[in-house]
Specification:
Blueprint: E1 2-6, H1 14-25, E2 29-35, E3 54-57, E4 66-70, H2 74-85, E5 92-99, H3 111-121, E6 126-131, H4 140-155, E7 163-168, E8 178-181, E9 186-190, E10 193-197, E11 203-207, E12 210-215, H5 230-235, E13 238-244, H6 251-257
Parallel strand pairs: 1-2, 1-5, 2-4, 5-6, 6-7, 8-13
Antiparallel strand pairs: 3-4, 7-13, 9-12, 10-11
Helix pairs in contact: 1-4, 2-3
């Protein structure tokens, strides 16, 4: 398959090297376009008020891979690749392997998921892959699953346009319980700002969010309750696959608001 791979951890992150090299060695046609530095938690930001630069990177990836480092955000990277750098569209956009989980509501902040979502916006099915640890460097289970997932998609392509958000537990391959389809859960944080003083005596703040709770999605979303959330399943060492879309319309809200009578003007 012809693949475009990006990330939010930057061109030299071990996760993207493991993924790109593993898929290239498996025979896929791989192009890498990703940020020239870490751009985690940038969400779906785009660069509008300054130029975006891209340069070819050599001797980092498998010899068959063309790789670019981009000065923009993860979403910039995918948009630039699709509209300026590639000679033809890829069959699939992949983002990752991210260092750290992208579970539940994390996806709203995630540069990893946003890079993949940019592919979906451009009508290309996409996959975001994350290893649920900030310290583990063993990406082999995630790469092995990525190869298996692409084989599955070659045999049975997705019938509808979607993003598959994949989270892989940071355990050995023999400790993984299996693979399960999940719905998006909820993760909430206490956004603690540490107040500090710099050497010049000026006050600044450092965001240090602490995970407060992991709970069920709110009622009213009309999702099948017999399907576990990604937050639940990852605790049991399952690889989670959650189908996502960019349309955030709240269906129940539509039904409620359509009953309103507006007296305006």
């Amino acid at each position: 398959m012809k693949l475009l791979i990006s990330n939010d951890d930057g061109i030299f992150a071990p996760g993207i090297r493991s993924l790109a090299n593993g898929l290239a060695a498996a025979g896929h046609d791989v192009t890498v376009v990703c940020p020239d530095r870490e751009r985690s938690a940038t969400g779906h930001g785009l660069t509008l008020h300054q130029p975006i630069r891209a340069e070819i990177i050599e001797s980092v990836f498998h010899p068959s891979i063309e790789a670019w480092a981009c000065s923009g955000t993860p979403s910039d990277c995918v948009k630039l690749a699709l509209w300026a750098l590639l000679d033809s569209p890829p069959e699939l956009v992949l983002s990752g392997i991210n260092q750290g989980a992208n579970l539940g509501t994390d996806v709203l902040y995630s540069g990893t998921v946003s890079a993949a979502m940019e592919g979906v916006i451009e009508r290309i099915p996409s996959i975001a892959i994350s290893l649920t640890s900030f310290t583990s460097k063993d990406f082999r289970p995630a790469v092995t699953f990525a190869k298996s997932l692409l084989t599955q998609l070659e045999k049975e392509p997705l019938s509808e346009l979607m993003l598959l958000n994949v989270n892989v537990p940071a355990v050995g391959l023999e400790e993984i319980s299996g693979v399960t389809i999940t719905r998006q859960g909820v993760r909430r944080y206490i956004d603690v700002f540490e107040k500090r003083v710099d050497p010049r005596g000026k006050i600044y703040y450092w965001l240090a969010g602490e995970l407060l709770e992991e709970i069920e999605p709110e009622e009213g979303l009309h999702l099948p309750q017999d399907i576990p959330t990604d937050v639940q399943a990852i605790r049991q060492n399952y690889i989670t696959v959650t189908p996502l879309q960019y349309n955030l319309t709240y269906a129940s809200g539509l039904h409620q608001l359509c009953k309103w009578e507006f007296n305006f003007p």
